[in-house]
Amino acid sequence: MPRVLRSSNVDLPSVWNHTQNQAHVNPAITTTMTAPAKVAEIWTTNPFCGDFNPGTKQGHSIFVEKTKGLATADRLDLSKKYATDLHRYFRAREDIMGDCIRKVPSKYADDGTITESFNLMTQYQQLTIQDCQRAAFRWYNNHIANGIAIPTPPFSMSTVNPGNNDAHKSKFYSRVHSSVVAAIIKNGLSVTGYDDLLLQKEQFAFHNAATGEMEYDGPTMLFLIFEKVDPSTVVGLDSILKKIENAKLGDFSNNVDGMLTMIESNYKILKENKKAPDSYRRLLLEALVTGPNHHFNQFIDRITDDVESGIGAHANITPDNLIIASHTKFNNMEELEVWNKVDPRDAKILALTTIVAKLEKSGKTALATGVVPPPTDKDKKGQKARTPQQEEAHKHFKARTTDKDYISGIARWRIVKGGSTKTVDGILYHWCPHHVKPGLWDGMYQTHSEAEHRGEKFGTNKVVEKDKKAEGGSNSLQLQSRLKEVMCTNLQLSSADVEKLFEQASEN
Fold it and tell me: What's the chain's average pLDDT?
């Protein structure tokens, strides 16, 4: 069967016409191409600043990084015992939490504009839980004007559509920042601590009935934590001022850096709350001379003299420069290993040591001899009147002191050895050489034998269950304890330095 050739009405270009052929092979593109949208570049020196969307991959990474907390084993319970640790944990993350907690509104204009705000980390004494809740309603629901009460829980959360509604973007990002604070709190508390906080959930939980979502307002949670663990929230700023006024180096193991850090942090709180003391420099000078190092105290005293006289190199020293100078001096002395060197600064220590030695000697003599000296008029002051029997006994004692048969109130027969035993008035007495009074007697007849001697009380026949050494040691320990207390309080010595002094004294 013959082939039938199809015809075409399409005019093909000649293979010899190169221009016409190329136009047919690569037809011109007539479709308009749209250039990709340019992503806005964000300029910031802090990668944690600015708004972000946790719904994106990059935003989710930012959220995870910002909300890193403590290892599970290191997380803290919600109690006053961990108040300092909790403050340290949140202060380290203050920049990450941002204005969400640094600028909590407390006052608004009629149009809703914020006119006053406080830093929740350092000025929470100026805020109330209603201030935190009112701020939360601005992003989880709607603004509540001044004078209008906070609604009764449970709180409702409105639905936002930031992708299609620019007015909702601000609310969305504020919710994100609040959620960051809530996650930081959760990741810093132990399971028990977080459960304790959730007991007040109705104060900070917002629920969206349409979507079933529930979110916690971080700033309100943080306020409730401070209210629970920090006593200064209750007693106010006066307690913070007292911490500065009562600061002593002995309370910080004589560490100048530690004490000044405490003073500076508390002063900052007072300053931010407009309660800074005018006498800040004087309080610093008084606190710095409460330590045991005489050389350092002289250094501070020279500055004090210049300040009080109004002349000299340090007359106009500022508190900040005083702190820097004190840090430098302390660190240099530690580097040279002269800070902990104990030196008796004045005659008070020697005088106290002498008094103790005399008291110990007097106590031991009375115990050894069994003789108690008659009370002086000073001793009698404040004593109860004697009974007739006591008065009669006292007369006999006074008579014995002038009777030739008595020596210092002791019958002569008792201190003159005439055998190992002696019976007087039907009572058997044993010679005991442990009862000695130098220059008067070298032993005494007692109702106990030498082997049974354990420190007999004068005026009785009962044997005390402690020997002379133990009795003397007890008195010595009491005196030593009292001396340590006096040296720590009056001489501003640390407990460790007092121990060193006693060690040196015992070696001598």
Answer: 77
